[in-house]
Amino acid sequence: MARKRISTGSDYENLVGYSRALVVDDWVFVSGTTGKNHDTGITPEDVVEQTEICFNTISWALKEAGSSFKDVVRARIIMANLEDDALVAPIVGRYLKPVGPALTTFVASFLDPIVKIEIDVTALKGSADV
Questions:
Q1: Could you give the strand order of the β-sheet that contains 3-6, starting from the edge strand earlier in sequence?
Q2: By C-alpha distance, which of 107, 111, 94, 120 is closest to 33?
Q3: CB of 6 closer than 8 Å to CB of 37
Q4: What pLDDT sits at residue 130?
Q5: Residue ranges per domain, the chain?
Q6: Can you give the pLDDT at residue 10?
Q7: Helix (H), strand (E), coil (C) string for 63-93
Q8: Counts for the chain of helices (H) and strands (E), in that order
Q9: CATH says 3-129 is which class?
Q10: Radius of gyration of the chain (CA)
Q11: Which of 26, 34, 28, 25 is nearest to 6 (CA)?
Q12: 25 neighbors 1 (Cβ within 8 angstroms)
């Protein structure tokens, strides 16, 4: 069984010991991803900006895993505020609507109060070709 760890090198990944994504055979499990810009270390206050950063980071992780959004079969979205759904949904649709994965969305609080959204995905490499 092949196993590959993918990391952004973030302080939190190193502190906790988790991977941004984990590849096991043809499966890609991308960890919950917030809107923190890993290049600058800054999390913008705007939920739209955070959502775009989430998807950019996820896209990077999928590419590192030899996959893409076309292979995503499941996604979970956690938002701090239900009211943000109207702003977030069009962005989510831009990435997920073409592949129609299973999706769960819910509202919860985060460890860092600036965080307004977190997204994780699971992909099966090659499933877009089925």
A1: 3-6, 21-24, 27-34, 117-124, 72-79, 102-107
A2: 120
A3: no
A4: 66
A5: 3-129
A6: 82
A7: HHCCCCHHHEEEEEEEECCHHHHHHHHHHHH
A8: 3, 6
A9: alpha beta
A10: 14
A11: 28
A12: yes
SS3 at position 3? strand
**Whether the Cβ atoms of residue 109 and residue 117 lie closer than 8 Å to each other:** no
With bands split at pLDDT 50, 70 and 90, how would you rate the model's confidence at 8? confident
For the stretch 70-129, pLDDT in tens is 999 999 999 999 999 999 999 999 999 999 999 999 999 999 999 999 999 999 999 987
Show the tokens assigned to 26: 């043809």
CB 102 within 8 A of CB 74: yes
Q: Which amino acid is at 21?
A: A
Q: How many CA atoms lie within 13 A of 26 on its CB side?
A: 8
Q: How many other CB atoms are found less than 10 A from the CB of residue 124?
A: 16
Please report where in the chains the tokens 């993918």 appear, as a residue.
6
pLDDT for 59-79, tens place per residue?
Answer: 999 999 999 999 999 999 999
Cβ–Cβ < 8 Å for 72, 123: yes
Global pTM?
0.94
